[in-house]
Specification:
By secondary structure, the chain is an alpha/beta fold. It has 2 domains: 1-136, 3-Layer(aba) Sandwich (Rossmann fold), CATH 3.40.50.880; 140-219, no CATH class. 29% of the residues lie in helices and 18% in strands. It contains 8 helices and 10 strands. The protein has helices at residues 8-15, 32-45, 59-65, 76-85, 89-98, 108-111, 159-167, 219-222, and strands spanning 21-25, 49-52, 69-71, 103-105, 140-143, 175-178, 182-187, 190-195, 199-202, 209-211. The strands form 3 sheets. The protein has a 4-stranded parallel beta sheet. A 4-stranded mixed beta sheet has the order 5-6-9-10. It is globular. The N and C termini lie far apart (40 Å).
Amino acid sequence: GGYLGHCQQHIKSFLGEKVKRVLFVPYALHDRDAYARTAREKFESLGYGLDSIHESCDPVEAVRKSEAIFIGGGNTFRLLKALYDNSLIQEIRKRVLEDGIPYMGSSAGTNVATVSINTTNDMPIVYPPSLQALGLVPFNINPHYLDPDVKSTHMGETREERIRQYHEEPNTPPVLGLREGAMLLVEGDKATLQGVTGARLFLRGKKPTEHEPGTDFSFLLTDSNLQN
């Protein structure tokens, strides 16, 4: 569908009527002006104003004044480097975890909401000072998760094999593979899988498990022993 078309009703129910303007973070793409125009057109069609953080002379102050934050997709390394360069990691964490404003992430914006960007699909085209991300949830996500194609002649690793390699390292958190059309709604201590395609959950040292839309993933938010 069109930009955010598959989830626009979820956006409206998530942001609600209290939010009037959304702060958009277009750092994951090179052409920030064009990206902001696309996002602004969609959010205005849903009844929300949109301010792009790259247009602000003080990004930190923009976050502090924001009613809701949306970080869009693109290259995860470029995005995370820009968040560090603009001193926004702790500011966004505070607004979301302490002040309770809504946070939305798409693709790379989902990756940076987790513990780290170790499970992104992107190439490291730039070098952020750390792979540690916003840590809004205590696990990692692999957006655009792809199941193996049994007919493929591709000899490289499948997505599942790459996540297994990640879990060969010690103290690595769970990874939730979100397919196209899947969303994770986190409210307080409750996490629910939404969308139409389902997800695959990877826990270190265990076989991956398949989950349908509607699954309660709240245990991922609270069980610190999962990574062990």
